């Protein structure tokens, strides 16, 4: 049995709905990580459109996907593959992604007032670890890892596994594929949910385990049973009808003060009916119409979905924190959050899938070895493209920060004040500078390797890389310690980048085919030297003063940062030409 494309479509769509669901929680009448100023009481009923079945369906599909993996591997190989795919992103997420969320939440709710590094140490200090390691949305990954271990244990006895699959198909044959799961879901909702609720904590979440592990194992055991799929297809419209009746009843039970009467049993019954009715309908329609619905969109989203899941909640929490002070109308704010969350998640996927060393921590498989001819200088050229993008990102961060800072005086104020205490949303500027700084350091490695490839100048290439790495470090540190913190002056490490044009010029001096680049570097160095002596009052004292210092700083920053993108582009094109690719050399 080949890959089930309908399950890929269901998984991608369910994760998309999850992102929209989390955006909805921002406007709910209950405590989430961060809230909008717009709150809607009807969201308590609105979330019921997907809340009963969305995650249960995802666990079911995850179990089914794992079963296909087991057909080609031993139990040991499956365990290793699961660990390689789940453990690195889980560790990365708990150390980086989740602390960003919790820091913003603590800042927003007034329980913390200092920087992210102090918060990180607070979370992972011995006293912080005594309270456990928060996982936030990554609880799903923890549970998938634990449930995968159960499936691997079942694999150790193939005959028993075969008997379980056959028994499941037999007992759920015909109309029972609808009735039996509903009875099970109602039973655990009545008996376990009132006692344990849902905690998303692996060691004390018994109702959730009966629900989610049950769904995972159901998918694991049923996916190869064609009779069950035929029955799901046959009864798909019954599922639609049952869900159409159950959903409004559920909403009324939630809205009405007496909705939990009779120990909540009627509510649990309707909840269980809706839960399986929707899932069975989705599985039936998907099996009937999407099994062979392949295409580039599905392949792209299938690869991107785990990375987007890892990133989306951190992006959403940060987006609410940054966008909320703008006091946008609710429709505009919702649209901005949806675009920021989906777009930001896909941008992260686009970035990380191109960097082999970080693919595993973002849930992506290692880059497969190339099957065709090796492209020369590919990694160096990618690093140079990072150098092209870094100034553009820094410019975007400045422009957005200025737009959110009413009354910012370009003539008298320094750019660092966009990230200072007086700025309405300092995180925009500081986050942009932090990312741009990291990109600058990476670009510097690309510059150094490019010089080595073009001129075999190892010493000059190394010095160029060092200058860029120091500059990137200065930018990162300055963003972590915003103005007026004295440690913000670490940004002066970036001034060493003024030497980089001379170093690159020295390294490529013997190359007669790089005349345009050499002229550009010489002009940049002279211009930076002129702006430096002017701003430091070494010549024409008084020309730069409190009334215009901001404009001088803008000009200096544009030259200091902007030349990097131009030089990186020209060097990348030269490397591509030297590699024999069809590009125009920069001297033409």
Instruction: Tell me the Rg in angstroms.
Output: 29 Å
Silhouette: globular
The DSSP helix count reads: 22
Q: In whole angstroms, how far apart are the ends?
A: 56 Å
Average pLDDT value? 87
Q: Indicate the low-confidence ranges by residue numbers.
A: 581-588
Structural class: mainly alpha
- Helix share bin: 55-70%
Report on the architecture of this protein.
- By secondary structure, the protein is mainly alpha-helical.
- Helices cover 68% and strands 0% of the residues.
- It has helices spanning 5-25, 43-46, 54-70, 75-108, 116-124, 126-129, 139-155, 158-171, 176-191, 193-196, 206-222, 226-234, 236-255, 265-289, 296-323, 330-352, 378-403, 426-455, 458-480, 500-508, 515-535, 549-578.
- The protein is globular, with a radius of gyration of 29 Å.
- The relative contact order is 0.08.
- Residues 581-588 have low confidence and may be disordered.
């Amino acid at each position: 049995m080949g890959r089930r494309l309908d399950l890929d479509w269901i998984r991608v769509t369910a994760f998309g709905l999850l992102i929209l669901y989390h955006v909805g929680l921002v406007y709910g009448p209950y405590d989430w990580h961060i809230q909008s100023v717009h709150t809607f009481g009807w969201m308590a009923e609105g979330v019921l459109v997907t809340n009963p079945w969305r995650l249960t369906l995802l666990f079911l599909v995850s179990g089914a996907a794992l079963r296909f993996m087991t057909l080609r591997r031993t139990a040991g190989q499956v365990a290793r593959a699961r660990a390689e795919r789940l453990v690195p992103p889980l560790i990365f997420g708990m150390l980086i992604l989740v602390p960003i969320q919790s820091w913003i939440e603590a800042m927003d709710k007034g329980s913390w007032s200092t920087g992210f590094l102090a918060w990180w140490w607070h979370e992972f200090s011995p006293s912080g670890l005594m309270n456990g390691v928060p996982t936030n949305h990554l609880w799903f990954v923890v549970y998938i890892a634990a449930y995968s271990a159960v499936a691997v244990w079942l694999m150790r006895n193939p005959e028993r596994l075969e008997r379980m699959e056959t028994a499941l198909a037999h007992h759920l044959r015909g109309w029972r594929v609808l009735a039996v799961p509903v009875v099970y879901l109602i039973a655990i909702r009545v008996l376990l949910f009132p006692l344990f609720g849902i905690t998303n904590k692996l060691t004390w979440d018994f109702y959730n385990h009966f629900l989610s592990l049950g769904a995972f194992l159901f998918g694991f055991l049923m996916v190869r049973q064609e009779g069950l799929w035929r029955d799901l297809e046959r009864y798909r419209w019954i599922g639609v009808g049952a869900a159409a009746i159950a959903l409004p009843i559920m909403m009324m039970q939630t809205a009405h003060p007496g909705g939990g009467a009779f120990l909540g049993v009627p509510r649990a019954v309707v909840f269980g009916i809706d839960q399986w009715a929707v899932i069975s309908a989705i599985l039936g329609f998907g099996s009937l119409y999407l099994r062979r619905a392949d295409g580039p969109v599905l392949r792209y989203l299938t690869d991107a979905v785990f990375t987007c899941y890892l990133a989306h909640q951190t992006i959403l929490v940060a987006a609410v924190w940054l966008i909320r002070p703008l006091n946008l109308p609710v429709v505009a704010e919702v649209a901005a959050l949806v675009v920021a969350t989906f777009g930001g998640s896909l941008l992260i996927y686009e970035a990380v899938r191109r960097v082999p060393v970080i693919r595993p921590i973002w849930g992506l498989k290692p880059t497969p070895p190339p099957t065709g001819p090796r492209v020369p200088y590919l990694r160096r050229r990618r690093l140079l493209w990072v150098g092209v993008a870094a100034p553009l990102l820094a410019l975007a961060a400045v422009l957005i920060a200025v737009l959110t800072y009413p009354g910012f005086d370009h003539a008298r104020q320094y750019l660092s004040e966009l990230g200072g205490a007086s700025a309405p949303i300092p995180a925009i500027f500081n986050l942009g500078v932090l990312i741009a700084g990291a990109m600058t350091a990476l670009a510097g490695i690309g510059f150094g390797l490019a010089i080595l490839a073009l001129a075999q100048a190892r010493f000059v290439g190394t010095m160029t890389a060092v200058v860029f790495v120091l500059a990137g470090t200065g930018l990162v540190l300055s963003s972590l310690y915003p103005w007026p913190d004295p440690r913000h002056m670490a940004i002066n490490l970036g001034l060493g980048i003024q030497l980089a044009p001379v170093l690159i010029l020295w390294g490529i001096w013997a190359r007669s085919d790089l005349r345009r680049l050499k002229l550009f570097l010489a002009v940049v160095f002279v211009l930076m030297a002129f702006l430096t002596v002017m701003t430091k009052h070494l010549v024409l004292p008084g020309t730069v003063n409190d009334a215009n210092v901001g404009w001088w700083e803008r000009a200096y920053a544009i030259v200091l940062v902007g030349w990097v993108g131009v030089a990186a582009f020209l060097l990348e094109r030269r490397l591509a030409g030297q590699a024999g690719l069809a590009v125009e050399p920069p001297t033409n």
